[in-house]
Amino acid sequence: MAAPIANDRGGTRYRRILLKLSGEALMGEDAYGINRSTIERMVGDIAEIAALGVELAIVIGGGNIFRGVAGGASGMDRATADYMGMLATVMNSLALQDALRQAGIVARVQSALKIEQVVEPYIRPKALRYLEEGKVVIFAAGTGNPFFTTDTAAALRGAEIGAEIVLKATKVDGVYSADPATDPSATRYTRLSFDEAISRNLKVMDATAFALCRDQGLPIVVFSILKEGAMRRLVMGQEEGTLVHL
Q: Please, where are the H alpha helices in the chain?
């Protein structure tokens, strides 16, 4: 086990984090939709972080339901398809909020699209107040604009709320030199600078999200959501996944 990084926050490395969850991660072993056992396990990980007193905001994708750039959207107007994808993230956010509620964790969903009968709109000062009160804030509907991914929404919201790091949860335990599923010689990086990731053409996030994090000096950690205890180890300052920094 890696030695923890020194910190002065009651054992935790970070005070406020932005967690980016992919919609696909909610599927578990299913072909689509939300796998109940998978979301319950995620909630358990989130509950551990909340119990440490870390302020947590979440951006979740919608790829388990609909993705604007996927084959299912072939022939559709791209903006229309992207709005459908945003609505899918609202559905995932509500499911996550409900699962958190059942675990005794208070969460609030804020949507970049106005659907006030269902969720409240994104209002930055209110989101900050919720975080300071110890509530988990889930940002839905991406940026509210087509042609932008939920990676970009994560970078944007992370910068807006003053998050100290973006934790990008994937099915892979970090950034590799090549696709580990097809290249057995692929090696995992433990640390990378933004410039190194660009020069090596490594796909950490989409280009817009990556540039925003680099410009704002907002580090990114790519880690496996499937690895038990990974999120807690990250928050405690232990090495996990791949850290991308200035």
A: 36-51, 78-102, 124-132, 150-161, 194-199, 207-216, 230-235
Distance separating the N- and C-terminal Cα atoms of the chain: 25
**97: Cβ contacts below 8 Å, ≥ 6 apart:** 107, 108, 109, 138
pLDDT tens for each residue of the chain, 246 residues long: 333 333 445 578 899 999 999 888 888 777 788 888 888 889 999 999 999 999 999 999 998 888 656 655 667 888 998 999 999 999 999 999 999 999 999 999 999 999 999 999 999 999 999 999 999 999 999 999 999 999 999 999 999 999 999 999 988 899 999 888 888 899 999 999 999 999 998 989 989 999 999 999 999 999 998 888 899 999 998 999 999 999
Distance of CA 161 to the CA centre of its chain: 14
What's this model's pTM, rounded to 2 decimal places? 0.90
Going across the sheet that includes 16-21, the strands are 120-121, 107-111, 136-140, 55-60, 16-21, 165-170, 220-224, 242-245, 191-193
Element (H, E) at 170: strand 165-170
| Residue 244 · residue 194 · CB < 8 Å | yes
- Among residues 67, 208, 77, 87, the alpha carbon closest in space to that of 144 is found at 87
List beta partners, residue 19.
Answer: 58, 167
Domains of the chain: 16-245 (3.40.1160.10)
